[in-house]
């Protein structure tokens, strides 16, 4: 198992120390460093990220709202220079808090703890559940059956979702975040903060939009790279 890691910090000596320490740990892969939150968000949306080393001042100035992401929250290690900081009263939820400069012994200890924890989760997988080709949604007072292969797209409208199928439109009380958890990832992709589309029903793709029937659906900047990466991984784009 490899732990994919990024660093959010502007402290160059600290960054170099983490990189140097990381080179000696075979199960750790430090992929990138960021001093800008928007760049970090784009990367996290498009790449597997298990662990983030984050500077405390960076975290205070640029708070990350994990509800904006359709991923499981990575483990976070907060680094700081002020030992009197009362992090228990702060909004941050971290796996560990470390003082700068961090020692190699402390670094190894924390990484081993994370590795053991993740191996434990892997050793006790959730029981496999049979996947159906349909689902049920509430539509006013009715509960309707919807087949996955008939869905063209989902559109988020605050606390509601517009489900467009081949034959009808359904409005149901739901959020995009919750919806993404249940949809088959090999059949549906989020391409915009307000849209999840069926790969099967896409007719045309260009830089800024996809066409499904008569609908022209925008591709958001945040989702563009992960969208095309997913298509290539599924071998749906032939270069």
What does this structure look like?
Helix 2 packs parallel to helix 6 (221-233). The relative contact order is 0.10. The protein is elongated. It has helices at 12-22, 37-46, 56-61, 104-123, 176-182, 221-233; strands spanning 3-8, 28-34, 51-55, 75-80, 96-99, 134-139, 142-147, 151-157, 160-165, 169-173, 188-192, 195-198, 204-205, 209-212, 215-218. It is an alpha/beta fold and 239 residues long. It has two domains: 3-123, Response regulator (Rossmann fold), CATH 3.40.50.2300; 134-233, Beta Barrel (OB fold (Dihydrolipoamide Acetyltransferase, E2P)). The chain has a five-stranded parallel β-sheet with strand order 2-1-3-4-5. Strands 10-9-8-12-11 form a five-stranded antiparallel β-sheet. Strand 11 and strand 12 form a beta hairpin.
Mean pLDDT: 84
Tell me what portion of residues adopts beta-strand conformation. Answer: 25-35%
Give me the Rg, rounded: 21 Å
> Can you tell me the overall shape?
elongated
What's the CATH architecture of the largest domain? Answer: 3-Layer(aba) Sandwich
Total helices: the number is 6
Structural class: alpha/beta
Series of H and E elements: EHEHEHEEHEEEEEHEEEEEH
Low-confidence stretches: 87-91
Number of domains: 2
Assign the CATH superfamily of the largest domain.
Response regulator
What would the CATH topology of the largest domain be? Rossmann fold
Strand order in space, largest sheet: 2-1-3-4-5
Portion in helices? 25-40%
Distance between the termini: 31 Å
InterPro entries: CheY-like_superfamily, LytR-like, LytTR_DNA-bd_dom, Sig_transdc_resp-reg_receiver
Domain HTH LytTR-type: 135-207
Organism: Labilibaculum manganireducens
Keywords: Phosphoprotein
């Amino acid at each position: 198992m490899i732990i994919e890691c990024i660093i959010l910090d502007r402290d160059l000596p600290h960054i170099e120390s983490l990189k140097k320490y990381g080179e000696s740990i075979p199960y750790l892969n430090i992929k990138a460093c960021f001093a800008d939150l928007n760049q970090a968000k784009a990367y996290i949306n498009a790449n597997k990220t298990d662990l983030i080393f984050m500077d405390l001042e960076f975290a205070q100035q640029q708070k990350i709202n994990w509800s904006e992401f359709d991923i499981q929250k990575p483990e976070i290690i907060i680094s700081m220079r002020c030992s009197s900081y009362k992090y228990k009263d702060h909004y941050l939820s971290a796996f560990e808090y470390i003082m700068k400069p961090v020692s190699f012994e402390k670094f190894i200890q924390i990484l081993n703890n994370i590795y053991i924890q993740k191996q434990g989760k892997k050793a006790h997988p959730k029981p496999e559940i049979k996947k159906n080709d349909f689902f049920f949604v509430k539509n006013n007072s009715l509960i309707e059956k919807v087949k996955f292969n008939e869905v063209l797209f989902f559109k988020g409208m605050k606390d509601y979702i517009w489900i467009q199928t081949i034959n009808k439109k359904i409005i149901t009380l739901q959020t995009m975040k919750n919806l993404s958890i249940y949809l088959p990832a090999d059949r549906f992709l989020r391409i915009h903060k307000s849209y999840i589309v069926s790969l099967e029903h896409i007719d045309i793709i260009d830089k800024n939009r996809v066409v499904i029937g008569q609908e022209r659906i925008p591709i958001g900047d945040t989702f563009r790279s992960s969208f095309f990466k997913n298509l290539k991984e599924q071998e749906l784009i032939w270069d």
